[in-house]
Amino acid sequence: MQVKSEMMNNQLTAPTRIPHDIKIVSEKEAPPTSGFGVAGMEGLGGGGSSMGNLFGDSAKPKVKAEAPKKVNISAGVAVGMLLQKTQPIYPPIAKAARVSGTVVLQATISKTGAIENLRVVSGPAMLQQAALDAVKSWRYRPYLLNNDPVEVETTVNVIFTLGG
């Protein structure tokens, strides 16, 4: 059977018939990898053997990816790791002023699960300190990457709503 190109004027054309059987075309074996270099290169650098030693199998480097020092995770993943949560105390002045809303905090969860580098991203000013005070005492299960605990950077949303 002869294989005919399906290209005509650099455009793919539809086949004229569908074959009844499919033949597997096997590729020739890859050329042996014993030699390295280009033809005519033998005289350079003292022969092909030095190139073989330079790029030979004996000195393959071992590459191991180092775990990152700090990982970013979403607030949803962080909630699943929460072990101890202290409820924030609604500030009486904010309650009297009918202030409600969400305070967004940025935090680092240490390798031990403690909160570090806690800072306010956004939220009503009257509620920010109460949110900071509560979240400071939260404890998380350490985040494991390749079975090693790593620091985690995440956001924490503290929602203040007035009961009604």
Q: What are its keywords?
A:
164 residues; alpha+beta; five-stranded mixed sheet; two-stranded antiparallel sheet; 19% helix
Order of helices and strands: EEHEHEHEEHEEE
**Structural class, please?**
alpha+beta
Write down the Rg.
33 Å
Oligomer: single chain
- The overall average pLDDT, rounded, is 78
What amount of the residues lies in strands? 25-35%
Give the overall shape. elongated
Termini separation (Å)?
A: 83 Å
- Residues in helices, as a percent range: 10-25%
| Number of strand elements | 9
Main sheet summary = 5 strands, mixed
**Secondary structure tally, helices:** 4
Q: Which regions are unreliable across 5 or more consecutive residues at pLDDT < 50?
A: none
Structure notes:
The mean pLDDT is 78. It contains four helices and nine strands; from the N terminus they run ββαβαβαββαβββ. A hairpin with a 2-residue loop joins strand 8 and strand 9 (148-160). The longest helix is centred in the C-terminal third of the chain and has 12 residues, at 125-136. The chain starts with 6 loop residues before the first strand and ends with a strand. By secondary structure, it is α+β, with helices and mostly antiparallel strands.
